[in-house]
Amino acid sequence: MLPTVWLLGTSGVGKTTVGWRLLLSLGERSVRAAFVDADQLRLADGIPAAQPELTAGGLAALEHGYRDAGAQLLIVAGPADDPAHLARLLPGRNLDHVLTVHLHASDDAIVERIHRRGWLVELAQDAVDYARSLDHGWADITLDTTSLGPCEVAGRLVAPAMRLLVQSRAATPAVSRPARDADMPAAVVVTGPGGSGVSTVGFQLFRKLARHGLKVGYVDSHQVGFVGPRPRAAELAGLRATNAVSVAAAMTERGVHTVVLTADPPTARRLQGALAHADMYWLDASPESLAGRLTARSRGGGPPIAGDHRLGLGDGELAASIAASAAEARDPALRPRHAHVIPTDSRSPGQIADTIVATVAIVATVATVATRHARSPGQGDAGPAT
Predict the structure, then answer these.
(1) Whole-model pTM?
(2) Domain CATH for 44
(3) Residues 277 and 327 reside in one and the same domain
(4) Which residue among 10, 32, 325, 343 is the one 20 to 30 A from 51 at the CA level?
């Protein structure tokens, strides 16, 4: 296993933001690290596997992709209640090569941050309650982030992370590459120009397919491909595709039948070549729509995203981002072969996801089977008596 810095704590203490800043800070010091938010590895529904099992499977699946990309160290942001819980998340791994960092903050700071980001604000009190239940004493490092910014917290972790790397370098063997089952899940790949809402639509699609009774998982390829000082670079498209397929395969081993994958256009084309069966969807948008969505994103609209490169853009940077997305939308060569084109102007992410659901053949099959099973032998087509 790669030597690992594990950032733990409740929602709102800054795990993901600090992890991202630590990734960049290490890159400035010529340490090529990888970063993943563990929450991204356990998005599956309709299967008996517990969240720790999904996280453990996802982390194991990512190991070789990160190593092949030159990663020397892994940074994970995710819940870990105690040493026993961490051991379940990293089964068979030497925990001497894991630096645990417990981030915490005052109750008021946690609530304020969750409300400020405007995502799952109804769970703010749950986050506070979880924070109170955690033991501060078992982690290697404990930091109070109440009055510290993410850059300052990350700065305090650079030296311990580099010491971990030196201590682990000679003693950490590479794990063997697991054999991949030839049977991959049915895949639905959602892509499109920047600002078309790919990740938001993909997550909505995942939730809707789950409500249709599918054993379904969701993988945002960007979130499993952060490596090095330029973690969003176009040349990492191959890594993003490799890691997304690996996590999808790990979900399959735990009972998932269908996986929704979201990707930028270069990664989507790689996914199309790597997956035997994939329905491809291109989200189409006008320049005006893209401009409106990217402007809203730059001002904090939408769900929080690790390493959001559009958040806080200045006028000139925002204009360049809008122009780049408009160019992507106009270039037919970027679209995967035989992709379904879905217009998105003046439509919510939920409405766009509904359009995709209506075209996914497996949904109709599941619905038909469920209807047949619900009927008793004597009712025929009349439906159940009321």
Answers:
(1) 0.89
(2) 3.40.50.300
(3) yes
(4) 32
User: What is the residue-wise DSSP string for 244-290?
Assistant: HHHHHHHHHHTT--EEEEE--HHHHHHHHHH-SSEEEEEEE--HHHH
Q: 8 and 153 share a domain? A: yes
Binned at pLDDT 50, 70 and 90, residue 386 comes out as very low
Residues 79 and 217 grouped into a single domain: no
Residues in Cβ contact with 235 at an 8 Å cutoff, skipping those fewer than 6 apart:
none
Alpha-carbon distances of 293 from 183, 195, 347, rounded to whole Å = 38, 6, 12
Q: How many domains does the chain have?
A: 2
pLDDT band for position 268 (cuts 50, 70, 90): very high
Q: Are 232 and 222 in contact (CB under 8 A)?
A: yes
Please check whether residues 206 and 351 belong to one and the same domain: yes
Do 86 and 152 have their domain in common? yes
Does 29 share its domain with 146? yes
Q: Say which DSSP state 302 is in.
A: S
**pLDDT value of position 381:** 36
Q: In the predicted model, is pLDDT for residue 177 greater than 80?
A: no
Q: Are strands 216-220 and 258-262 parallel, antiparallel or unpaired?
A: parallel
pLDDT band at 46 (very low <50, low <70, confident <90, very high): very high
Residue 334 shares a structural domain with residue 296: yes
Task: Write down the mean pLDDT value for the chain.
Answer: 89
Please name the residues in contact with 159: beta carbons below 8 A apart, sequence gap of 6 or more. none
287/69 Cα distance (integer angstroms):
35
Domain that holds residue 22: 4-169
Does residue 174 lie within any of the structural domains? no
